[in-house]
Amino acid sequence: MSSTVVALPDQSTARIPKVNYLSKENGLLSWLLTGDHKRIAILYLISITFFFFIGGAMAGLIRLELLTPQSDLMATDTYNKVFTMHGVIMVFLFLVPSVPATIGNFLIPLMVGAKDLALPKVNLLSWYLYVFAGIMVLYTMISGGVDTGWTFTTPLSTHYLNTHVLSTGIAIFIAGFSSIFTGLNFIVTIHKMRAPGMTWFRLPLFVWSHYAASILMVLGTPVLAIAIVLVALERVFGIGVFDPTRGGDPLLFQHLFWFYSHPAVYIMILPGMGVISEVVSTFSRKRVFGYTAVAFSSVAIAVFGFFVWEHHMFIMGVSNYSTLVFSLLTMLVAVPSAIKIFNWSFTLYRGSLTFETPMLYAFGFMGLFTIGGLTGVFLGSTGTDIHFTETYFIVAHFHFVMVGGMLMAFLAGVHFWWPKMTGRMYPEKISQLAAVVTFIGFNFTFFPQFILGMLGMPRRYAAYPPEFQILNVFSTAGASILGVGYLLPILYLTWSLKYGEIAGNNPWQATGLEWQIQSPPLTENFPEIPIMDHEAYDYEWLERQQQREAQSVG
Amino acid sequence: MSDSPAIAQAAEHHEHPPYQRHHFETVAQQFDAANFAMWLFLLTEIMFFGGLFMAYLLYRNWYFHAFVAGSHQLSLLWGTLNTTVLITSSFTMAMGVWCAEMRKKGGLVLCLVLTFVLGLVFLGIKTIEYTEKIEKHHVPGFHYSVKSFVDPASDKEATEAHDKPLAPDMAQKTEVYFFLYFAMTGMHALHMIIGICILGYMIFRAQAGAYTTGHVTFVENFGLYWHFVDIIWIFLFPLLYLIARFPA
Amino acid sequence: MSHISPVLWQFFVKWMTNFALFPPEASTIAPQMDALIFFMVLVSLIGLTIVILLVTSFSILYHKKRHPVAVQIEGSTLLEATWTIIPLGLFLIMFVWGSLIYFRVYTPPANAMNIYVVGKQWMWKAEHPGGQHEINSLHIPVGRPIQLTLISQDVFHSFSIPAFRVKREAIPGRYTSVWFQATTPGTYHLFCTQYCGTNHSAMIGDIVVLSLADYKKWLAQSTSGASLAQNGERLFASLSCNACHNDRPDARGPNLVNVYGSKLALSSGGSVTADDAYLREAILNPSQHITQGYSPIMPTYQGQISEDGVIALVEYIKNLNSNYRVEQTLNTTDLLPEGEGKATGAKPAPAAKGAVNP
Asked: What share of chain B is helix, strand, coil (3-state, %, to 5)?
């Protein structure tokens, strides 16, 4: 181990606790019919990793095609299908459920001091809906794909394409319900199942972030559902709702779609921000600077996030005055994210820092999310949006926040809580290498795309003018490095399941209820419900706790 | 939250009714959580219908005359009857919840059966209305005909409402009205069907005494759902049936 | 910013362009937009530098080996206020500045020359008022304000000229517009930037900016013979618009002479300015746009006329300042055999002699 924050038990005698949620019952049915939130989290982890690699393969194909200015690797129609599947899979089957459904599912009951989520059966149903959605998407891919773009804009998707729009729509509809049920479960759990003494302001910031994201999931996703229903009705029955020759308004679809899809990006990023709060605090051995500010910022992002959707439509002939309103609100929603970045930075101040892998990913997040977020302001200002919208600038912006931000946070969280979930440590050196490789690969892949956007290269182009080639080649080169960075964790995390060092209860010496119980936890989490008598991130309490333990053992 | 020693004690001695799930400390907590979850779910349903209400808002604003003509095609009799039926079914459902709380099994079963029957009556009336629309070719996308609107004299409902003939382009916009009519009432009817199926299940379980032993969560939360479906109809009725019916 | 130091500015821009980090600035709005972009880049760089400096310096100063005991700090309201207000202030500056530019781009000057652009899968059709038609290219004169009136024939497209820093969506069912004034002759990229199906990446072309003399030469050699307005006049007669829209005393429709740009009182009570969008809607959805004092008897031409046809009619009405030729065509259609020159809308066009159908 490279640092001394990690305090593992004596490895010569260490063993995984005999009774834990993994060993409690065996057999496939015990997993497929489980109500245990921890097992459901593992089921989700396996499924979303599977879909991540399919979406990643699509990304690889995109970058390979874009090595040359001509559309020569595959037919243009195929390319259109490839980027559509990349978007649909990555947004709906990876990013939206990633942190909430895996890490959130695992940890929210532990962090609030409950024995399970409020509605375990609904939780399992949520996973089955996800799997069904995934199977529909696979069916779509196998039977020829869909080429609407993940935004399935009408009238293109309703009147001008012969591909599998309907099956994709059904898949996204079902995935939406999976998301709604997860969010619903979290809100009820956080409201009704906190342990005695666990007041709102003693909750870890991870819980606050998930609460805010759950509000977005629950209120925003149904509007996407109705948008999909209308597209399906239009496609199947030709009712005319989006057809201007029959009195319909194609812009109505845009409003309904973006009313969800903007909050969706906050659904994706807020849980990741929650992870960063935990990681930065633990590896600085300090309470998060400005706890209240960070907690309220999460809620502010959620609330403001509902009122900015038209910024995806600034050039679409909407009223100029409406753009004033939405641009102003967009500027307002950018501020809480800035507040968080500064609060995390100042958490490091006068802390006691070590740089294990989760911390490296957290630093990557802070740098890349800052760039991604600031470029969002370029787009939120209506004047500059005219030049940048619909170009590779947008592609770079959302990949910076989603991949440089969210995906890094997801990896930080998986590494941070891996000892708790499996009882074993991941290998530190190679994981730090993977983090650095990912960071370098990411910048090479996506930074040139800002320049391409500035130069005017449109998005969703299979062929482009030759003068854009150099930057595209750079980007593809970076993508190959990035691919290596993502492949490594799969390998060493799987390796660690059998050969990793035994972690013990609290290898990171972190506060938080989840670290006070065994790793892996019991099925019922706590033998008896704990009583919360200290603040969140109370390192002084942790010290007293450890002294007590040392005294009682000694 | 509540008194910790009592909780710790109860948990230790496993003193809880058989229907209390193990991750809850008390029955009250379980009931509270399920109730809260149902309210949240209904909130998502409001957002779901909200998209359709938005579309309605937009197109009624754009094509008011077409909406008037379309609305006059609906039967005020059937609509009012349906509204009465649904409100009554909400009453019988509320009575059912009360019976469950009072542990009156017979009363509960009766109320659930009444609610079930009223629900079926509602769907039956809707079927009659839909059939009328189909016969008149007022279903968007299926040989839609604007004859009733360009030539009101040829149409019974239009004549009764003293509708003036619409210009052809405005008459074509009635298709938008009817698409909204079918989408909104159809989505509502789908929720009714789901509710009726669950009611059927509940009648069997109520007869077996499942809800009259103090565990009323299921009945109470279903009641919430049923009332919600009723409230949606209360909005749909004036929006769809009562456009400019009685001009000053 | 460009008038702070024109020499330095031009040098900087040329440098960025030559290093292919930057498209050329070829319109009057481009330097204004670039000024805001540079401000944003500057602010972002400073912001990013601050964050990186904070994180790096704290990582060095407070490394566990150097600083083994962490000091628990709750927070600082002053700091929170600082890093709330300063970013908010900077973002608000960008909001105001950006909105000014946005309004400038989408508010064409009154003297702008109008060119119609129809987007369809997968080509751009530009229609000059003089009757010149182009596909996937647009010839314009330097130094004159040009307004584009855009519409799509099928799905959403987006007309983008990076060198001018302008972009506007072409939407099916309604006109959108954008304007620009080119500053340097040359050829610049035209892209479709809204995904529109199979050949989205092929829907590209050239914007050719010519000097005034060259532009006049081009106009002369590219004309198809009839201007847009002349085509519109032909359609006006062949679709029997002249049957109701003339200046006879018993005319069933309003006189269209000089109607473009005027304020009309509608029968529904409101009033509207008769711009391009109104004219298009009045042709396709007339019953919602009836002028006060007239009955809603105009048939709709939805489905019978293409967007090109509508554009021709709109251009004709825009330039209509006398009913002299309308009267002439009416007299001609009088002489035509039955069935010719009649509109085929839902209602049969009334006989041209002015007889009123009950």
From this structure: 75, 0, 25
Please report the domains of chain B, with CATH numbers, ordered by start residue: 39-241 (1.20.120.80)
- Maximal C-alpha separation, chain C: 104
What does the pLDDT read at residue B1?
45
Tell me which of C301 and C338 has the higher pLDDT.
C301
Is the CB of residue A251 less than 8 Å away from at least one CB of chain B? no
CB A87 within 8 A of CB A37: no
- CA max distance for chain B: 79
- Report yes or no: A254 and A313 within 8 Å, Cβ to Cβ: yes
The model's pTM: 0.92
**Residue A497 has which token pair?**
């399941």
Handedness of CA C228, C229, C231, C236 (dihedral sign): positive
Chains in contact with C, where contact requires at least 3 CB pairs less than 8 Å apart = A, B
Helix axes A320-347, C29-61, angle to 10 degrees: 20
Q: Which residues contact A203 (CB under 8 A, 6 or more apart)?
A: A111, A112, A190, A194, A536
The Cβ of residue B185 has, within 10 Å, a number of other Cβ atoms equal to 22
Judge: B168–C285 Cβ closer than 8 Å, yes or no: no
Domain C6-105, CATH 1.10.287.90 — does that match?
yes
What length does chain B have? 248
Which residue segments constitute the domains of chain A, with CATH numbers given?
Answer: 35-548 (1.20.210.10)
Chain C contacts of B65, Cβ < 8 Å? 287
Q: Which CATH superfamily is domain C228-335 in?
A: Cytochrome c-like domain (1.10.760.10)
**Scanning the structure block, which residue is given the tokens 């298709």?**
B175
Q: Tell me how close the Cα of C249 comes to any Cα of chain A, in angstroms.
A: 34
H/E element, A120: helix A120-142
CB–CB of A188/B36 below 8 Å? yes
Which of A191, A225, A248 is closest, CB to CB, to B48?
A225
The yes-or-no verdict on residue C312 having pLDDT over 70 is yes
Looking at beta carbons, which residues of chain B come within 8 Å of C287? Answer: 65, 166-170
Q: What is the DSSP letter of A115?
A: S
Q: What is the pLDDT of residues B193-236, one digit of tens each?
A: 999 999 999 999 999 988 888 889 999 999 999 999 999 999 99
Cβ-defined contact of B12 to A528 (cutoff 8 Å): yes
B163 CB-contact burial (10 Å; exposed 0-12 / middle 13-18 / buried 19+): buried
pLDDT value for B74: 94
Shortest distance between the Cα of C6 and any Cα of chain A, in A, equals: 22
The minimal CB distance from A247 to the residues B37, B50, B176 is found for B176
B212 contacts B108 by C-beta, under 8 angstroms: yes
What does the domain layout of chain C look like in residue ranges?
6-105, 132-208, 228-335
Q: Check residue B196 and give its pLDDT.
A: 97
* Architecture label for domain C132-208: Sandwich (2.60)
Which residue carries 């892949």 as its tokens? Answer: A445
Neighbours of chain B (3+ CB pairs under 8 A): A, C
- Paired with C191 in beta bridges are C160
Residue bearing tokens 């904070």: C54
> Which value does ipTM take for this structure?
0.93
Nearest to A475 by CA among A55, A80, A63, A62: A63
For chain A, list the contacting chains (3+ Cβ pairs, <8 Å): B, C
CB-based contact C218:C134 (threshold 8 Å): no
pLDDT tens by residue, A198-253? 999 999 999 999 999 999 999 999 999 999 999 999 999 988 899 998 889 999 99
| Summary mean pLDDT of chain A | 94
Give the residue numbers in B contacting C (CB under 8 Å), as ranges. 62-63, 65, 150, 166-170, 172
Q: Do C48 and A262 meet the contact criterion of CB atoms below 8 Å apart?
A: no
Q: Using an 8 Å CB-CB cutoff, list chain A residues near B44.
A: 180, 184, 218-219, 221-222
How are beta strands C205-210 and C137-141 bridged, if at all? parallel
